Amino acid sequence: MNKMDIATSAELDRDVWKDLWTKAKNIQTVVWQNLPGTEEQKKLSLKASLVLIVLTSLLSTSYYRIGKDEFVQSKQKSLSLFGGITGTQQKTLRSYNNKNEGQIFRAWDVCPEDYPPLHPIVHERQDEVRKEHEQSTAQETYQLNTIVGGDALKIRTIEHGYFALHSEEDQEDRYAVQGSAWTDYEIVFSNGEQFVSSTTGKSLNTLIEPKGNWGESRTMIGHLGNHAAYTGWMHHNYAYFLHDNLPNIAYMKYLLPDDTQFILGYSEVHFNLLNFIDPDFVKNRITWIQRDDHIFYVDGNLTVADINSPQTAGCCEQFEPLRQWMAETHSETTPSKEKIVLFYTRVNKKTGEKNKDEMNGRILNAEKEKLVLARIQDKLTQYNRKEKLVVFDGLNDDGETTMSIEDQFRLFRSASTIIGPHGAGIGGNLVWTSPFAQNCDDRVQLLEFRPRLDDDDLALSSPSSRGSYFKNFRKWPFEYHQVLYSENSTPEITDIDIDNLDDALDAMWGGPDKRHYHFNLTESAWNFPNMDEAVYMQNLMESKEQNRDTRLKIQFAA
Question: What are phi and psi of 298, to 5 degrees?
């Protein structure tokens, strides 16, 4: 081994160095009187011990960087010098240490009448169109709900593992930031097998095989202790990170031991979002890595998420860790008199033109949008609602700069009702809504405008889920309503039937004769698959327990 280059200022800030030096000086003072020899000999001994204490602390909390050929030898020497790793650390489960005001109610228990929902409350006066949507969505959701354990994040923990991110040129699927995890004996693949695109023949996995030349072309970086590595799809995207990736990171955070350090691919968007949610977590538990020429070796346990896409299977615990995280770090609540009704528009409020961030999104007919806003305000007045109607386009008042994360959080946290077309402006911000719902009427109401099943212009995964967040956010206790786009909608301009909007607003805000706040098996067009309602309800109660991930020890509010 030629040398070991200890990383200092890049990894440890001035406060850490000061803390290490102070601790070393304290130790020096304690042992001074017990050292043998003359005063001059004591000084020399203590100077040497002071340096050794700081270096030992530094190496136990940071990482070391070495050349490829000397990695194994230097790793063994450096660990034996400072005491090494005493075997595999036993996994422990993290309990939620909630304050009373930071507790959440289990999603199953917030509104039992509506759980688990099989489809949103669809407001469509063309009866056959409504039935088609209810049947299609419910059939797919029923199949997802019955996947026992489908909510539980699939993870793999390996000892003495390696992890690396592929460069943009090397990766096989453009939607993912693909990585590789392996040991000297095996390669960790997503779900234990390779999923391949039928059109490109390339792997669609988040975790794929490492490149054969990495041993010669990449620098090895060593880490001590327990680590978790995560990578997902749609890198750098605000909305996809929040509703597809953040729930998985939260799951790992509350599942793994508290001393687990996270290895995450750096993006300014990811950093800013996580730093807003939990700056202490970012400061103390994340190592940010680039898609560059490094390989990360973990001398300890390395845990990776074993996923390929957003978790939609199972029912319905996946978002519980994220709801708990938000409850702990952002327990802000909004007084009733300050609540708002939030309408999301895809056009710039100031210019009236399509929002620059909505390059792939369709916009609501301009005249119809004015009518929609007027009708919402009329219904607020009709039902004596005190909320203020706020139009959200994702921009500041100048119509040019993007609204800060803090301001978007404040808007969505104060919303009692959210209305608008399916899109990132809604889906990316739903995690900011209150996690503290206690009953059916306490839930945030969501009214989503979405495409019809026969709309082929929005090509997503399956007909019933196209252009809707329902599969994801059925796992968050929302009161979920939908209005379908009219037949005259085009790939550029959408339209809705104002009568359908009226029905939705009446159902959300009307009196007992109009209020419709939950999925209703009796009224739904969905047909039970080879069973009656009694058998279905029995299966439902069994599913409630079977799908609960007992590894997560959440102290739910009673």
Answer: -110, 115
**What pLDDT, in 10s, does the model give residues 478-525?**
999 999 999 999 888 999 999 999 999 999 999 888 998 888 877 888
Q: Are 286 and 274 in contact (CB under 8 A)?
A: yes
Cα gap 390→339, rounded to integer Å: 10
> Per residue in 102-151, pLDDT tens?
789 999 899 988 888 899 999 999 999 999 999 999 988 888 887 877 88
Q: At what angle do helices 268-277 and 405-413 cross, to 10 degrees?
A: 50
Between CA 179 and CA 177 the distance in angstroms is 7
User: In this model, does residue 316 exceed pLDDT 50?
Assistant: yes
Question: In angstroms, rounded to a whole number, what is the distance separating the alpha carbons of residues 556 and 137?
Answer: 30
User: Is 265:289 a contact under the CB 8 Å cutoff?
Assistant: yes
Closest to 452 in 3D by CA, of 193, 85, 126: 126
The residue assigned the tokens 């739910």 is: 556
Q: Which residues contact 311 (CB under 8 A, 6 or more apart)?
A: 150, 151, 153, 247, 248, 318
H runs (alpha helix) in 438-522: 470-473, 498-509
Task: Give, to the nearest 10 degrees, the angle between helix 14-32 and helix 39-61.
Answer: 140
Among 470, 517, 532, CA closest to 119: 470
CB 129 within 8 A of CB 452: yes
Query: CA 499 to CA 5: how far, in whole Å?
Result: 70
DSSP-derived letter for residue 62 is S
Helices and strands (H and E) in the chain: how many: 17, 18
pTM, to two decimals: 0.80
Q: How far is CA 108 from CA 105, 114, 289, 369, 549, in A?
A: 8, 9, 38, 35, 13
* Two structure tokens written together for 531: 């069973």
248-295: per-residue pLDDT in tens?
999 999 999 999 999 999 999 999 999 999 999 999 999 999 888 789
- What does the alpha-carbon distance between residue 182 and residue 190 come to, in Å, rounded to a whole number? 12
The two three-digit tokens of residue 385, written as one number: 């609602």
Residues 353-374 pLDDT 10s: 877 665 556 889 999 999 999 9
Q: What's at 503, amino acid-wise?
A: D
Bridging pattern class, strands 340-344 and 388-392: parallel
| pLDDT at residue 542, rounded to an integer | 79
- Where are the extended beta strands (E) located within 144-280? 155-165, 179-182, 187-188, 219-224, 227-230, 261-265
